[in-house]
Amino acid sequence: MNGKKPPVWFVTVEILILFLVFLLGDAVVRLMKWPIPLGLLGMGILFILLATDKVRVHLFEVSSRFFVRHIVLLLLPAIVGVIRFWPVLKKEGWKLGLILVVSTIAVLVAMAGIARITKAKGEE
Amino acid sequence: MMVGQTGSLLVLTLLSYWAGYRLYQRIPHMLMSPVFTSTLIVIGVLWLSHTDYQTYQMANKPLTWLLGPAQVAMAVPLFRGWKLLKKHLSSVLTGVCGGTVSGMLTATLMGKILHLSTVTILSLAPKSATTPVAMMTSQAVGGVPELAAFFAVFTGILGVVAGPVILRWMGVRNILFKGLALGTAGQMIGAARASKWGDAAAAMGIVGMSVTALLIGLFTPLLILFLI
């Protein structure tokens, strides 16, 4: 940020552009029938545009910060949706809890193990 | 009348989030996160007003639509961490691949052993991706997006609670790698926690989060073959 605050309408334009990129990725995924999640391709497209200097990164400064900070707002409707699966969660709750805890630990332990091995090869 | 109800249900989400956000600023504790407080407020109001979830979901479509652009916008922090990523490319890829695959296999195998339904397993599998990606992935493979969102958020919280402890216990001292591990295990919530170790660790957290989301998007469809 170089001290200039972009006007409010600018954010709307930023989000519209992001939306168009998302739709572009969406269209490609549907055409190609790739089973990859929507949004990832859009992220890839924008990343390539940034990396090849086609788009200046500060164009999306405000919107990307807003999204990172307030992602929970966008997720609220989905998280509230969990009430529909209350019976499942009540019945399988302990299993799900156990799986979440163990697999999270598995990710961390695997990574720590890999860190030790690669360090042994002298990588820092 | 219908329009009024739709509008008020959208306003309900915005107000609940605002209240939860302010509360979290007052009491910055994991358990006071808007994920819990705002969700409880919304559920409470829906229950009191006898509104069914379907109606609420329809009214809040605009917010759900924004998840697409939100995921696209993740390219920005990833681009900022690009220099670091290039510098440590091999160790980043090895670490994130190893961690992500271990987590997915553990969750899937345990789900099989504990006799969870395939739909539930497919909602669990992508939980280490960013929440929007977890939702879209589970939808693509036949899971339930709402469950996937719930699991993803919970995984983020667990990653932040367990991450620093396990990494210290296993003797990982490299701050960059610690950031990477938190981003991999706890996506956005983990990356935010990694910023306590400085900007470089935060950038690595974003890198871990993004690479994990990509890998999960690519690997989950392969899991179906393994499940059937």
UniProtKB/TrEMBL annotation, chain A:
<protein>
    <submittedName>
        <fullName>Uncharacterized protein</fullName>
    </submittedName>
</protein>
<dbReference type="Pfam" id="PF03788">
    <property type="entry name" value="LrgA"/>
</dbReference>
<feature type="transmembrane region" description="Helical">
    <location>
        <begin position="34"/>
        <end position="55"/>
    </location>
</feature>
<keyword id="KW-1003">Cell membrane</keyword>
<feature type="transmembrane region" description="Helical">
    <location>
        <begin position="7"/>
        <end position="28"/>
    </location>
</feature>
<keyword id="KW-1133">Transmembrane helix</keyword>
<dbReference type="InterPro" id="IPR005538">
    <property type="entry name" value="LrgA/CidA"/>
</dbReference>
<keyword id="KW-0812">Transmembrane</keyword>
<keyword id="KW-0472">Membrane</keyword>
<feature type="transmembrane region" description="Helical">
    <location>
        <begin position="67"/>
        <end position="86"/>
    </location>
</feature>
<dbReference type="GO" id="GO:0005886">
    <property type="term" value="C:plasma membrane"/>
</dbReference>
<feature type="transmembrane region" description="Helical">
    <location>
        <begin position="98"/>
        <end position="118"/>
    </location>
</feature>
UniProtKB/TrEMBL annotation, chain B:
<feature type="transmembrane region" description="Helical">
    <location>
        <begin position="91"/>
        <end position="114"/>
    </location>
</feature>
<feature type="transmembrane region" description="Helical">
    <location>
        <begin position="175"/>
        <end position="194"/>
    </location>
</feature>
<feature type="transmembrane region" description="Helical">
    <location>
        <begin position="62"/>
        <end position="79"/>
    </location>
</feature>
<dbReference type="InterPro" id="IPR007300">
    <property type="entry name" value="CidB/LrgB"/>
</dbReference>
<keyword id="KW-0472">Membrane</keyword>
<feature type="transmembrane region" description="Helical">
    <location>
        <begin position="6"/>
        <end position="24"/>
    </location>
</feature>
<feature type="transmembrane region" description="Helical">
    <location>
        <begin position="31"/>
        <end position="50"/>
    </location>
</feature>
<keyword id="KW-0812">Transmembrane</keyword>
<dbReference type="Pfam" id="PF04172">
    <property type="entry name" value="LrgB"/>
</dbReference>
<dbReference type="GO" id="GO:0016020">
    <property type="term" value="C:membrane"/>
</dbReference>
<feature type="transmembrane region" description="Helical">
    <location>
        <begin position="147"/>
        <end position="168"/>
    </location>
</feature>
<protein>
    <submittedName>
        <fullName>Uncharacterized protein</fullName>
    </submittedName>
</protein>
<feature type="transmembrane region" description="Helical">
    <location>
        <begin position="200"/>
        <end position="227"/>
    </location>
</feature>
<keyword id="KW-1133">Transmembrane helix</keyword>
